[in-house]
Design a protein that fits this description.
Strand content: 15-25%
CATH architecture: Alpha-Beta Barrel
CATH topology: TIM Barrel
Bound molecules: beta-D-mannopyranose
Number of domains: 1
Number of strands: 12
Strand order of the largest sheet: 1-5-6-7-8-9-10-11
Shape: globular
Order of helices and strands: HHEEEHEEHEHHEHEHEHEHEHE
Largest sheet: 8 strands, parallel, barrel
Structural class: alpha/beta
CATH class: Alpha Beta
Number of helices: 11
Radius of gyration: 21 Å
CATH superfamily: Glycosidases
């Protein structure tokens, strides 16, 4: 009797798990997959624009988008592909770094079909001045895009163009694929028009609510996982100062780079990173959120042992869902964050990639 009951309840549990899963939004499925991967002790590795170009190559229309500098070095691809929406608001054919939007979609869908995860940042133009994201000449930009502001109408068209594009990321069955979306990042600094000194706390929160409300509620994009990405250099209080709220944030992120001469800056970076990740881990537990290192890196990788001596010791004990390094620009000398064949940290990167808990895909 007991056994039958147990079997029955097991069958019911399986059935309900299947029903739940089928009924689940793509965003919920990705979040629960990320949680499971963290439970297993895995930290997934990612790179911005990984399949679009590398240090000395650029993919062209018609290519299969499965090459990356990371794969050229270690035989495996990054598990997380970062892409940027900058320029989608103007409905042009390419983003701010020259990536055709159609190719970005192809790269994302192919990556997803190989088991990968896709994350989008957005460096939109400045809707008030006509400059770029880094144009901080006015502190009236955020207020101008909010309801009642002089650029609100234009900004809603920008959000609409963004939502139209994100809605086209579909699998072979036409189902939306999950995307981690992390708008209004590094707002704890003041280098973007939505930065700390350029708007009030209320304005920043209103910007998030407007964005979330439009994309998720009005447009019904059930595939977006929302990531909050302050910059480094804040304590726990500073980190949470402009937190949009548990109801609209899914991932607690961090953008933290290493700057300055090596090796002197190695310890400075790893200490700051460890300290920040340790309070993020607590915040993640308190708020029931997954944590991630949403951007990091050492530009030009001038330290051969960076991966196993600097990055790995700083992250290895932290329940991070993923770590993403920035792009390997093919057109800006020295602007790269992952090794390429011949780069001085390539042997060390292979050691890092061979560590059991760092996740890549085939
Ligand atoms: C920056 C640099 C820029 C780039 C921007 C958005 O960190 O890599 O060259 O345009 O990110 O991708």
């Amino acid at each position: 009797m007991k056994k039958i009951l147990a079997t029955l309840s097991f069958a019911a549990a399986v059935l309900s798990a299947c029903t739940d899963k089928d009924a689940s939004a793509p965003a919920d499925i990705l979040l629960s997959d990320l949680r499971a991967s963290v439970e297993e002790g895995k930290i997934l590795f990612g790179q911005q624009d990984a399949y679009m170009y590398g240090h000395s190559w650029r993919a062209v229309q018609g290519d299969r988008l499965d090459r990356s500098d990371v794969r050229d070095v270690c035989g495996k691809n990054p598990a997380v592909l970062g892409l940027d929406l900058g320029g989608i608001e103007l409905s042009g054919p390419e983003n701010l770094d020259g990536n055709p939007f159609a190719m970005m979609r192809q790269a994302a869908i192919e990556h997803y079909s190989r088991g990968g995860i896709v994350t989008f940042s957005w460096h939109p133009r400045n809707p008030l001045t006509g400059g770029d994201s880094w144009d901080v000449s006015s502190d009236k930009v955020v207020t101008s895009v909010l309801e009642g502001g002089e650029r609100h109408g234009v900004f809603m068209q920008w959000l609409s163009a963004c939502a139209d594009y994100l809605d086209t990321f579909r699998d072979a069955d036409g189902k939306r694929i999950p995307l981690i979306f992390r708008p209004w990042h590094e707002h704890t600094g003041s280098w973007f028009w939505w930065g700390r000194d350029l708007c009030t706390e209320e304005e920043y929160l209103a910007l998030w609510k407007l964005t979330y409300g439009y994309m998720t509620q009005e447009r019904g994009l059930d595939n977006l996982v929302w990531a909050y990405s302050p910059g480094a250099g804040v304590d726990a209080e500073g980190y949470m100062e402009r937190y949009p709220g548990d109801g609209i944030v899914d991932i607690l992120g961090l953008d933290c780079y290493q700057y300055g001469e090596v090796p002197a800056s190695n310890a400075v970076y790893s200490e700051q990173l460890k300290e920040t990740l340790s309070f993020m881990e607590k915040l993640g537990e308190e708020h029931g959120k997954t944590i991630a290192l949403t951007e990091t890196g050492l530009e030009g990788l001038p330290y051969a042992g960076w991966w196993t001596e600097v990055l790995y010791p700083a992250i290895k004990d932290c329940p991070l869902a993923y770590v993403l390094v920035w792009r390997n620009a093919s057109d800006i000398p020295g602007h790269f964050y992952a090794p390429w064949p011949g780069q001085e940290s390539e042997d060390d990167f292979r050691k890092f990639a061979a560590v059991g808990n760092i996740g890549f895909i085939e």
